[in-house]
Structure formats: C-alpha cells, structure tokens
Design a protein that fits this description.
This protein has 19 helices and six strands. With about 450 residues, it is mainly alpha-helical.
Length: about 450
C-alpha cells in the first residue's frame, strides 16, 4: 500500500500493509454506506443553509452523493481496503466526481460525529424492522391461540406436571413476552434517535452550524447537549443488544418447549417436512432444526452484549478507536435476531401441528387436578393446609393402587372426608379445572377470551 492517506501533511510515510489491513473497517462498515450518504446530504444542506458554503456548492455535493448511492446500488462502487473505511471511501469518490468542491463536505464535521450519526440512522431502521417482525410473530401466536382456547395442555413447574391449562393461555404468555420486547425497542428507538452530528471530534466547532436543522432533515427527535457525550455514547447500542438478548431468551424458551413437545416422550406436536430435517444415518429421524438453531444462536447475541459492555467499561472520553468494534457486534446481532424471528414465525405458521387427541389424553392421565380437590374442600370450610395434606395422602395411596383421582368411588371419597359429594367428579374434570381458574390473568376460558381480545387490539394499532 503506497497511496498517501487522507490525514494531514504531518504524516510523511504510509501505513505498513499489515497495519493498514488491521486498521481498516471497510470490510464491515460498508453496511453503513447509504446512511453515510444520507447523513452527508443533510450536512451539505445545513452548510448551505447557514451560509458556510454556497447553495450551488451544496447542490453539487448532493448530486455527487446521490450518484455514489446509485453506483453502489448498481454494483459499480466497491471500495477496497485501501479506502480504510466507508466515510473516506465516499468522500474520495465524491471528490473524483465533483472536484475540489467535494473537499468542502467535511467542513464542521469529524469522522467521530459522522460515524455516530450513521450508526444511529442504521439502528433506527433496524429497530423498526425487528418491531415489525415481532408483530408478525405475535399475529401467528394469536391465530393459534384463537383456535385453541378450550384445547388443554399440561402445565408444568420444575418440568413436572402441575395443572392443566388452556393451550391458548400458554401461547399468549409468549405473546406478552413479545409485547414487552416490542415496547422495549420503542423506548430504545427514542434514545437512539438523538443526533450527534455537530459535536465535531469532541468539542463542537467554530463554524455557525445549525444542528437542529440537520436533525429535522434526518428525522431525529433532538440533538446531544454535550459534545463529549455525543461522540462517545454507545448506551443506545448496549440497550439494543440488551433488548435483542431478551428477544432471544424468549425465542429460546419457546424453542425449548417445541423441541420437547416434538419428542416421542411428549408427542404434543408434529413437525412438518418444510421445517424439519433428517439424520444422515438414522432414516426414522425428524429433527427440530429450527428451534435448535434459534436456541443455539441466542448465545452469540448474549456474547455481543457482554462484548459491548466490556468494550465500553474502560474508555476515557471522548472517541477511541476501540469503538470501531461496536459495528460487527451490532450488525451480527441485528441479523441474528431478524433471522430467528423470521424462522420461528414460519415454523409456527406452517411448520407444526398440535396433536389435539394426544393433548387431551395428557391432561387426563396424571394428578394435576390434585389442587382442585384441595380447593374443593377449602370451599366447604376445611382449612386449606389440612385439605392439602389430606389430598397428598390420597395421591400417595392412589399411586400405590395404580389409580387416578377420577377412578375413586364416591364411597372412597367420603371415607377420606364427609364433605365430598357427587359433584367432586365434575370439579376435577380437566376442562372444569381450567374453566374454574377465572381470576384476572388466569387460564379460565373466559379470561383467555378477554386476553385474546386485548392482544388483538394491541397488534391492530
């Protein structure tokens, strides 16, 4: 590499080729090129608006930048490592197109506030995309839930059968997680949407710029009030990675359940061929690759969050080259979350079927109605803890006898406690067990239908 670099005549030599490669970010920050062009167009217009450059000069700059945009889209502009980064690449190409006037674009601007602007423009759009994908995911959950209000599924605690619940109620739990994700990203978008352009390298500029004018052109809600903070802040990126990590936690939990449900031991769902693969040596296998990959990819997003926290924790103000490392982590987290949301949505939408007969069988083959026996006695004046202990003994003796609670005769019930009557069988029937849990937020069918109506109103707004 022999070409002289962009910085000043303070430098006489050129970078060692290995150092040039090590220093360059063009291999990944090319992702920001259109945002760099958009930000530069706004900057050129602001320079003309404030009289720092002539309007005719700004017109040339804007036209040249738009030409670069089209060249990039058409595959005619492919800057290499000799350009170091996307910002220098665009500026050099602009000078080639419009001549010396192109050298005026960087007036009253530093790469520090420039890259800060680019990355916020990029992340703002990606947040909008991910929120849209979350809404698609929620709509598929709702479609399944609406069809399965009275379909029952075993509910678990400690991965042990606990109480039967509505399958719709189970699915709506994931809807609520996704709703928090959607809302959380909206809050982060607001803090991302603050403009650092005009902060300069770290201390502002001597030129009479109009930062709010630039903010208005670019759709930012405000501008940074401290130039040091503006060029060095990556809180918004860390917040995004935190939100992305939570999205992946939620998708991974759902994936784990789907993997269990698809196993022969559970057999609650059947995976369709469009979303499953086979084994290279075991012809009978159908593997849940989609949820397994989602579960696995969660770790890389968590790693990016940890990496960004470590990156930032020891940096003095203001900008440091370390911050070049923020982009690959951010880009990969965005792509991973986006891909996982798409894949899990397709899986739910068209890649699996719930096995209703097996689910009905599952909720009638255990002691998950034991709490309802205790509640039955408590409603008839028996202290709950006494009822609890009594039912525990009933379960113990029933297990020894190879019976379920529904198999006990009324005489056997009355021998346990005189409060039992013939309506005990209805009280412990799975559908009644679920329907009776009608407290707000519970799994009772009436509550689930109300929750569905609320959820539908959220995604329609």
């Amino acid at each position: 590499m022999t070409e002289k670099k962009t910085w000043s005549d303070r430098f006489e030599g050129t970078l060692h080729p290995a150092i040039a490669r090590f220093n360059a970010s063009i291999g990944f920050d090319i992702e920001l090129i259109e945002y760099d062009i958009t930000g530069s167009i706004a900057h050129a217009k602001m320079l003309a608006h404030t009289g720092i450059i002539e309007r005719s000069e700004a017109g040339q700059l804007v036209a040249g930048l738009e030409q670069i945009r089209q060249e990039y889209r058409n595959g005619k502009f492919n800057p290499g490592i000799e350009q170091e980064d996307v910002h220098f690449a665009v500026e050099r190409r602009l000078i080639e197109i419009v001549g010396d006037v192109g050298k005026k674009l960087h007036t009253a601007r530093s790469r520090n506030d420039q890259v800060g602007t680019d990355i916020r423009l990029y992340l703002r759009d990606r947040i909008d995309e991910i929120r849209h994908r979350l809404r698609q995911f929620q709509r598929v959950l709702l479609r399944h839930a609406e069809a399965r209000v009275e379909t029952l599924i075993p509910g678990y605690t400690h991965l042990q059968r606990a109480q039967p619940i509505s399958l719709a109620h189970h699915l709506l739990a994931y809807f609520q997680m996704a709703q928090r994700d959607w809302e959380r990203l909206g809050e982060i978008r607001s803090r991302t949407n603050i403009l650092p352009l005009g902060c300069g390298a770290l201390a502002g500029t001597t030129f009479p710029i109009d930062r709010q004018y630039s903010a208005n052109l670019l759709g930012f809600e405000g501008v940074y009030g401290n130039s040091l903070d503006g060029v060095s802040d990556r809180d918004f990126a860390i917040e995004f990675l935190g939100a992305a990590s939570l999205i992946m936690v939620h998708l991974s939990r759902l994936s784990e359940e789907i993997i269990l449900w698809a196993s022969q031991e559970f057999n609650f769902v059947t995976l369709k061929d469009s979303c499953a693969t086979g084994s290279s040596i075991m012809p009978q296998k159908k593997n849940p690759d989609v949820p397994e990959l989602v579960r696995g990819k969660s770790g890389r997003v968590f790693g990016h969050l940890q990496g960004m926290l470590v990156l930032m924790k020891g940096l003095p103000l203001a900008y440091n080259k370390d911050l070049q490392e923020d982009k690959e982590a951010l880009f990969d987290a965005v792509k991973t979350v986006r891909a996982c949301l798409e894949a899990i949505t397709i899986l739910l939408d068209e890649g699996l079927e719930f096995r209703d007969e097996r689910l009905a069988e599952a909720v009638s083959e255990d002691f998950s109605n034991a709490t309802d026996v205790a509640d039955y006695l408590a409603a008839r004046g028996v202290p709950f803890r006494e009822a609890y202990n009594l039912v525990g003994k009933v379960v113990k003796t029933s297990l020894a006898a190879g019976k379920l609670l529904k198999d006990l005769t009324l005489e056997e019930w009355k021998q346990l406690h005189p409060a039992f009557e013939g309506d005990i069988y209805e009280a412990i029937a799975p559908k009644q067990v679920v329907a009776a849990r009608n407290s707000y937020g519970g799994t009772g069918f009436e509550q689930v239908r109300q929750a569905l109506a609320t959820a539908k109103s959220l995604v329609e707004n």
